[in-house]
Amino acid sequence: MPTPDKAAAVAELTDKFRSSNAAVLTEYRGLTVAQLKQLRRSLGENSEYAVVKNTLTKIAANEAGINALDDLFAGPTAVAFVTGDPVESAKGLRDFAKDNPNLVIKGGVLDGKALSADEIKKLADLESREVLLSKLAGAFKAKQSQAASVFNALPTKLVRTVDALRAKQDEQGGAE
């Protein structure tokens, strides 16, 4: 029979899985408390990094409808619950792991879809949401400018053609 503390922990973790956009599982074996504190800061404001018990977290993930992570709950595990831009948190984890090889990204979940460690690293290589949106807006603006140029070119070309015909007619009319 589960104790009230364990039931409360499972309920809290289940709520975190449901309310987050993404969750990334890591192994933190060999990291000091100071390094974990630094990691929490590097993840940004939209992430919460929590050291968890595997059994309770596995139960909470299953209750939240996430079954794809079951194989990853082995060894010392911590979860980064991301409520904002997952790219920012993935970059923070990747950059921290470069400097601290003891941090191992096991895998995760993004909007209900399971991600491998390699997919999380690819996610970290993406540009931020704001940069991608500004590039998209620039592309739309460029296409609109091109369309305006094309539409403007037709009347301009027509006017030039009419002027050239008028000049030719005046030249021929003046010679006769």
Task: Explain this structure.
The chain is α+β, with helices and mostly antiparallel strands and 176 residues long. It is 60% helix and 16% strand. It has helices at residues 4-19, 33-42, 54-63, 86-99, 117-125, 129-175; strands spanning 22-27, 47-52, 77-82, 104-110, 113-116. Strands 2-3-1-4-5 form a 5-stranded antiparallel beta sheet. The longest helix is centred in the C-terminal third of the chain and has 47 residues, at 129-175. The protein is elongated. The model has no long low-confidence stretch (mean pLDDT 84).
Terminal CA distance: 113 Å
What average pLDDT do the residues reach?
84
Measured as a percent range, the helix fraction is 55-70%
Poorly predicted segments? none
| Strand coverage percent | 15-25%
What's the SSE pattern? HEHEHEHEEHH
Side-by-side strand order of the widest sheet: 2-3-1-4-5
Give the overall silhouette: elongated
Major β-sheet, in short? 5 strands, antiparallel
Class per helix and strand makeup: alpha+beta
- Radius of gyration (Å): 29 Å
The count of helical stretches stands at: 6
The number of E-state strands comes to 5
